[in-house]
Amino acid sequence: MDSVITTAAKEINRDELEKLKRSATQKALFRRRAGKFALVIVNLAMSIFVLLPLLYAVSIAFMPSSELFTTEMNLIPGNPTLENFRQAMVKIPLNRFIVNSFFVAGCITFGQILSCSLAAFSFSFLDFKGKNLLFMVVMATMMIPGEATIISNYLTVSGLHWLDSYNVLIIPYLTSAMGIFLFRQFYKSFPISLYESARIDGCSNLRFIYSILIPLTKSAIGAMAVYTFINAWNMYMWPLLVTGSDRMRTVQIGIGMLDSVDSQSISMMIAGVVMIIIPSISVFIAGQRQLIRGMFSGAVKG
């Protein structure tokens, strides 16, 4: 009789233990889901807060001036119109400015990827006298602000008769210390035996870069391309200083011209701003994974 009671008590305790386990599991699952849901809500609220100025700018771009200059708080245009975009294209040669910016930013991006990858290859795989000292000098240039050299650079390009040309917009930016550092850190994750084996097999340096390094460094190239294109697209001070005709101006200068052409038409100026930020935002959205992966891939060796 006592054994039967003991067995029954054990069964009851086992059932209660199973119930407690299921209850604890359900509570933990509920807390995990509630935490994820709360995190999504917080992220959504923060994203709306951060994007609100951009969304409002897009709304103003489609808003007639009569709706903007009122005492009412119009967040959404009541009568959307494309007139602001048409006026922005008519007031200044914005098409020409956009073409110039695309050409300049594309050439700078290609040039920096090419020059920085070659320089980083030399610092990573080649052995020559003064390599470390030269690399330190290259890195030291990152501590010099661009404003400190802009006058000397202007005098140099002026002496070369490059003013108001594509040369002056592109050539001074065909390489960068940041790009050399990014590619070098990425190349450092590769064993030197990879290069030595390729050399033993008769592979030249350029063939090694083209056939082996480039396929393995697509994330670094993507990160460099996104970073460089956005920076080149947003350049303002240097193009303003070295260009003097509408034939060579870029989009950032064009937006300043919209402000001076008709300072009362804020909606027209905002429409121009929306048009010129679309390419940079599109490039960032398309390459954000490559940008993040490229920035962090070289940080962990192995």
Give an overview of the whole structure.
The protein has 302 residues and is mainly α. It folds into 2 domains: 2-61; 84-297, MetI-like fold. It contains 14 helices and no strands. The N and C termini lie far apart (67 Å).
Keywords:
single chain; 302 residues; mainly alpha; MetI-like fold
Number of domains: 2
Instruction: Report the structural category.
Output: mainly alpha
- Quaternary class: single chain
Low-confidence stretches: none
Task: Specify the CATH class of the largest domain.
Answer: Mainly Alpha
Subcellular location: Cell membrane
Keywords: Cell membrane, Membrane, Transmembrane, Transmembrane helix, Transport
Pfam families: BPD_transp_1
Membrane topology: Multi-pass membrane protein
Helix-strand blueprint:
Elements: H1 2-61, H2 65-68, H3 83-91, H4 94-125, H5 131-140, H6 146-159, H7 166-170, H8 177-187, H9 192-200, H10 205-216, H11 218-233, H12 237-242, H13 251-261, H14 266-297
Helix pairs in contact: 1-14, 3-14, 4-8, 4-11, 4-13, 11-14, 13-14
The gist of it:
The protein has 302 residues and is mainly α.
